[in-house]
TrEMBL record:
GO biological-process terms attached to the record: determination of left/right symmetry; epithelial cilium movement involved in extracellular fluid movement; heart development; inner dynein arm assembly; nervous system development; outer dynein arm assembly
Source organism of the structure: Denticeps clupeoides (denticle herring)
Cellular-component GO terms for this entry: dynein axonemal particle; extracellular region; neuron projection; nucleus
Signal sequence interval, chain numbering: none
Protein name: Dynein axonemal assembly factor 4
Source organism phylogeny: Eukaryota, Metazoa, Chordata, Craniata, Vertebrata
Residue intervals of the CS domain: 1-77
Domain of life: Eukaryota
PANTHER family to which the protein is assigned, alphabetical: DYNEIN ASSEMBLY FACTOR 4, AXONEMAL, DYNEIN AXONEMAL ASSEMBLY FACTOR 4
């Protein structure tokens, strides 16, 4: 049923399924191939291929071809054309169809690339926003920690100044009291008639003083007291004891406490004695850690380590803070430094060594370095073999390694 603007062509499929039909359509040529049948039409006039459509229904395929020029066609196909002309039309149609297919493929590839680029740009933008957000959060925590440290410093200075003022007042009061006590009160002069009574009273006082001196016992005679020290007993045999290692560890700790604090840097000149105490800073860091302010705790440990970089607990505690903030490489570095300082290995530092091994092992596992993490957990389990939590965690890591090797 043709019109002046469109042509409608219905091609029966003769029981052939739609997925076996091959259709080729251009502005001058139409082909429907479904073996063993072939429908081919060299159109009488050009059509708008981009606006035309083909609908496959049950048992037929319906073409709606939009004419390029509005006119009635006397025939559907070209009449009285020789074979060479039809062959040229067919080859030209195939070439046009191929070019359209290449263009569609290229457009599709460009669209995919644009979508990938959009996705990549969107992802990078989100990552940049997240990075800026994290940096702002860290800067806020640093500023808050610095403000708290500055407030604490001012409070310590005020406390020290107040204590100094109180001590000065106490010394001044004591000095005035001593000065007043050193003055002898002037006795009023007695009349001559009372001089005899005064002499009598003086004599009675001397007698009383002599009687009191007679009641005081004589000093004890000098002598010598012998002291016997109990020998130290170890639970293991003498050949298995670690007496030299323990003595070395004790000497090492004494040397750290006595001469390890740095006071030669210019930045420490304005700090009070309390502010130069690494132990006090360590306690502040532990309080910050319990409160969940891990960045403030790291700042306190940083200052303590600048004062004394030989205290293992400062590195171990800072490693725990880095674990909470997901600074895994820094946690591994601090745990390793703590283990270097916790030498020689003795019973006194066993707990600290176990804590450092667990922190480093956890950081390795978070980085998916399970073999290294297993080594640290096994070292911690060797220190405390009866620890049920360590046994369970070690077994989980071992199972993860075995599962990875199977896959």
């Amino acid at each position: 049923m043709p019109t002046d603007s469109a042509v409608f062509i219905s091609v029966p499929l003769k029981g052939t399924s739609a997925n076996k039909v091959d259709v080729l359509s251009t502005n001058e040529y139409l082909k429907v191939h479904f073996p063993p049948y072939l429908f081919e039409a060299f159109l009488f006039a050009p059509v708008e291929d981009d606006r035309s459509s083909a609908t496959i229904k049950k048992g037929e395929i319906l073409f709606t071809l939009q004419k390029r020029n509005k006119e009635m066609w006397p025939h559907l196909t070209v009449q009285n054309a020789d074979k060479e002309t039809l062959k040229d039309l067919r080859l030209r149609a195939i070439q046009v169809a191929h070019e359209k297919a290449v263009a569609r493929s290229k457009a599709k590839a460009e669209k995919v690339q644009e979508e990938k680029k959009y996705t990549r740009d969107k992802t990078m933008k989100l990552q940049d926003e997240e990075r800026v957000k994290i940096q702002l959060m860290k800067a806020g925590e640093r500023n808050m920690a610095a403000a708290e440290l500055e407030s604490w410093t001012i409070q310590q200075r005020a406390t020290k100044k107040e204590e100094g003022s109180q001590r000065k007042q106490a010394k001044e009061s004591e000095r005035m009291t001593e000065k007043q006590g050193s003055r002898k009160p002037e006795l009023p002069s007695l009349p001559k008639s009372s001089q005899t009574t005064r002499a009598a009273q003086h004599g009675l006082q001397n007698c009383s003083r002599k009687e009191k001196q007679a009641d005081v016992p004589a000093p004890r005679s000098s002598g010598t007291i012998k002291i016997h020290f109990t020998p130290r007993v170890f639970p293991t045999a003498l050949r298995e004891s670690r007496v030299p290692e323990e003595e070395e560890w004790l000497k090492k700790q004494a040397a750290i406490r006595c001469g390890g604090i740095r006071t030669d840097l210019h930045e420490f000149e304005d700090l009070s004695e309390e502010e130069r105490n690494p132990d006090l800073l360590k306690e502040k860091g532990e309080k910050y850690f319990v409160a969940g302010n891990y960045q403030a705790a790291i700042n306190a440990y940083d200052l303590a380590l600048r004062l004394n970089e030989k205290i293992p607990a400062l590195y171990s505690n800072r490693a725990a803070c880095h674990l909470k903030l997901r600074n895994l490489h820094k946690a591994i570095e601090d745990s390793s430094k703590a283990l270097e300082l916790l030498t020689p290995p003795v019973a006194d530092n066993a707990g600290a060594r176990m804590k450092a091994h667990v922190s480093r092992g956890t950081a390795f596992c978070e980085l998916e370095l399970y073999d290294e993490g297993l080594q640290d957990y096994q070292a911690a389990l060797k220190i405390d073999p009866d620890n049920n939590a360590l046994q369970a965690d070690t077994q989980k890591i071992r199972a993860t390694i075995q599962g990875s090797s199977k896959t």
